Amino acid sequence: MSRAIIGRGPIGVTSETPRIDMSTSLGAMQLDAPVLTASGCAASGRELDEFFDITHLGAIVTKSIMMHPRAGRPTPRMAETPSGMLNSIGLQGPGLDAFIETDLAWLEQRGARIIVSIAGSSVEEYVKIAQKLRYVSGFDAIEVNISCPNVEDRGQVFACNPEAAAQVVQAVRRHVDQHTPVLAKLSPDVTDITDVAHAVVRAGASGLSVINTALGMVIDVDRMRPALAGVMGGLSGPAIRPIAVRCVWQIREAMPNIPILGMGGIRTGLDALQFILAGANAVSVGTATFNDPSAPIRVQRELAQALHERGFASLQEAISFAHRAHDVPEPLLAQFTVDESDGDPDGANEDGKEITEIVVRPADDVVDEDRPVAEVVQIRRDTGTEPFDQYKDWAADQAPEPVPDGQ
Amino acid sequence: MPIQLRAEVLDVRKAGAYSVLSLTAAGMPELARPGHFVTVSMGGEESSMMLRRAFAVYQVKSRGVYGGTLEIVVGVEGKGTQWLSERRRHDVLDIVGPLGRPFILPKERVPCVIVAGGYGSAAMFMLAEQLRDRGCRVDVVMGASTESKLFGVLEMKRASSKLIITTDDGSAGERGRVTDVLPGVIDKSEAAVVYAAGPMGMLSAVAAIAAEHRAYSQCSVEEAMACGIGVCMTCVLPVVGADGVTRMVRSCVEGPVFRGDRVRWDDVGTIPSDAFGAPVVEAS
Ligand SMILES: Cc1cc2nc3c(=O)[nH]c(=O)nc-3n(C[C@H](O)[C@H](O)[C@H](O)COP(=O)(O)OP(=O)(O)OC[C@H]3O[C@@H](n4cnc5c(N)ncnc54)[C@H](O)[C@@H]3O)c2cc1C
Ligand SMILES: Cc1cc2nc3c(=O)[nH]c(=O)nc-3n(C[C@H](O)[C@H](O)[C@H](O)COP(=O)(O)O)c2cc1C
Ligand code: FES
C-alpha cells in the first residue's frame, strides 16, 4: 500500500467537512480528533488503513493483549443478533512481546496515536504486562480491559466487582510510567456503574472507557443448543447503544470531571453526538466497522457536520451539553418557523392572550451560521403574553424585521 | 488491496436455486483473482443486520459502459441472502472486495481437477478458464444434493476439459457424492493439483483423497465471518504452518483458500490442545 502519510492536523478541516475544532482530550492525552477505534474491532489498525488513513482518527485502540500467546475460544465465535452481534473470541492474540515487536512498531512507524488495551486473568498478569510496558515507548495511553474472568476468583469478571476492578487498576497504575494515562474499561453488567467508576478512579484510573459488551446468549433453534461454542458472549452494536448512553450519562452526573471514552453501538455521527452530549470526551467505533470498514472516519466526518448544524464551533462546547440543557433554551425553534396555515399566532398576540400551542415546521434559513444555535433561540422561552415582536417577521402581512440579537 | 464501493445492480437472473447478481464495480475486475470473495452489506443503512455476507467472485468484466462489472451467485440460506435475492435492477449495494487469498495457479502445464459442491462452483469458472489459458487439462467434478442446486453446468461444460456431475438424489449426473467419483478422475488425469470449494465436510474428504493420490490440494473454506477484513478474529480455524505449528488463523485474510493438507479438518470448531496459545490443561 502506498498512501502518502499525511501530517496530523484537525480532521475537521477538509473540503467536505465544516470548520469545527474537533480537538479533545482524555485527561493528559491530547487528541486532534474525537473518534477512535474500539478494542477488538480494529485489530492493530493495519487492515483498516487500507480503507482510510488511520492517522486521521483520534487514536487506534488495539485489541486487548495478554502476557502470553492465546488461541482464544473454539468456533462458532459469533452470532448476528437484531442490530448487533454476540461474540466470544476469547482474547485470541500473539502475546505481549510479539505485539510490541510487530503491531506496536508498525503503528508507531505509521504515525498513529495509540492506546494499548491490556487484559489479564489475574492481578499478577496485569502487573507483569504493566511492568513490561513501562519500558516501551511509542504509545500514548493504556486501556485496561477488566471484563475478563479472574481465574483466582472462580472466574468472576473483575469489572463486575468494584474491589476487584480497583485492585487491577491500582496494580497497573503503580507499575506503568506515572505520566501514562490509564483508562479503565467498564462493563455494563453491574447494578450501579457509578460504584465501579468511583472505585477505579480512587484506585488511580485517569479516565473511563464506557462500555464493554453486555453479556448475552443466543440459542440456535435448529441445532437446539447455544449458538456460540463459548455458550455466552458479549453483545455489541446499536442494540446496546441506549444502555451505553445511559452509562455515560450516569457517570458524568456522578463525576463531572473524569475523562470518558464513550462507546457502544455507534454507527453514525448522530450516534456519536449522543455520547458527546451525554458527557463523553471522545468516542470509539466498534461493531459498526464490521458493517462498514470506513465507519470510524465516516462517523468522525458526520459528527463534525452534526456539530456544525447545531451551531457549535468546537467539539469541546458540546461535551456534556445535555446535562446543562435545562439552563439553555431548546435549540429546535431556531430551525423552525410558525406554520401559519394551522394557527394564527399573530392574531393571538393581538388578543393579548398567551400562546399555548404553536405548530412548527422546519426552515433551514433561520439559523445564523456564525453563532451557536443556543444563542439564536431564546425566542421560545419568552413566549408569553408580550414579546410577540419576535415572531413579527414570520407574519405574512408584516414587513420582516431582524431577529433581535442576544435575546 | 480491497476497495469499498457503492455498486448498482445491473441485472438479477435466476439459475436453478440461485440468483446471479450483476453489479457495477469499477476497479474490482482488475484486482480479482479466482478464489477471491466480496462482502455485501445487508438491508440498507438502517438495517438491523449489522454483518456483511461473503460471496465468491463469479465473473468479472473490466471493460464496458460501466467501467467494470462483477457477478456473484447467491443461494438463499437465511434472511440476508433472502433480502439479497430480492434486489432488482438499479438497487444499490455496498460491496467490499476483492478479499482473501486466491487460488494459486501451477507454473507448469500440469493436469488439474476442480471439485465444486453447490454454489462452490461460482469461484471455479474463472479458475478453469485461467488454468486452461495456461495449457492445463482441467477435469471438473460438480456435485449437489439435487439438480437445482448445481450452478452453471452448461457453462462449466465449455470451461472444462471434462465435466462429471453427481447429485445425492440422482436427479442429474451420477447418484452419489463428488468424493465417490473423485479418485477415478484423479487417477485417470494424473492430476497434480486438486482445487475445491464447497461445504466443509466435502473439503475435508477431498483433501484426504488428494493426499492419498499425492496431489497438491487447495480448498476454499467457508467459516462464519463478522468483518471479512481481518479485524475481528471470528473466522478462525486450525491450520498447520510451514514450521509445523498449528495456529488459529483467520480464514478471511489468510484464506479462504488453504492447502488441504495444512487444515486440521477434524479439529475445525475446536482449539487443538497443541495449537499455538492453546489453554494449558491443568491436572485436577
Ligand atoms: C468466503 C465465503 C464465500 C462464500 N461464497 C458464497 C457464494 O458464492 N454464494 C453463496 O450463496 N454463499 C456463499 N457463501 C455463504 C454465504 O456467505 C452465506 O450463505 C450467508 O452469509 C448466509 O447469510 P444469511 O443471512 O442468508 O443467513 P443467516 O443464517 O441468517 O446468517 C446469520 C449469520 O451467519 C453467517 N453465516 C450463515 N451461514 C454462513 C455460511 N455458510 N458461511 C459464512 N457465514 C455464514 C452470516 O454471514 C450471518 O452473519 C460464502 C461464504 C464465505 C465465508
Ligand atoms: C468482536 C469483538 C471483539 C472485542 N474485543 C475486545 C477486546 O479485546 N477488548 C475490549 O476491551 N473490548 C473488546 N470488545 C468490545 C468493544 O471494544 C466495545 O467496547 C463494544 O463492542 C461496544 O462497542 P460497539 O457496539 O461499537 O462494538 C470487542 C467487541 C467485539 C464485537
Ligand atoms: S471475519 Fe473478521 S477476522 Fe475474519
UniProtKB/TrEMBL annotation, chain A:
Location of region: Disordered: 379-407
GO cellular component: cytoplasm
Transmembrane regions: none
Compositional bias (Basic and acidic residues): 379-395
Xref: Pfam families: DHO_dh
GO MF annotations, alphabetized: dihydroorotate dehydrogenase activity
Flavoprotein in keyword set: yes
Pathway: Pyrimidine metabolism; UMP biosynthesis via de novo pathway
Entries under InterPro entries matching the protein: Aldolase_TIM (IPR013785), DHO_dehydrogenase (IPR050074), DHOD_1B (IPR033888), Dihydroorotate_DH_1 (IPR024920), Dihydroorotate_DH_cat (IPR005720), Dihydroorotate_DH_CS (IPR001295), Dihydroorotate_DH_I (IPR049622)
Protein's GO biological process: 'de novo' pyrimidine nucleobase biosynthetic process; 'de novo' UMP biosynthetic process
Cofactor(s) this protein requires: FMN
Ranges for domain Dihydroorotate dehydrogenase catalytic: 25-307
Entry keywords, A to Z: Flavoprotein, FMN, Oxidoreductase, Pyrimidine biosynthesis
NCBIfam families: PRK07259.1, pyrD_sub1_fam
Protein's name in the database: Unannotated protein
Organism per entry: freshwater metagenome
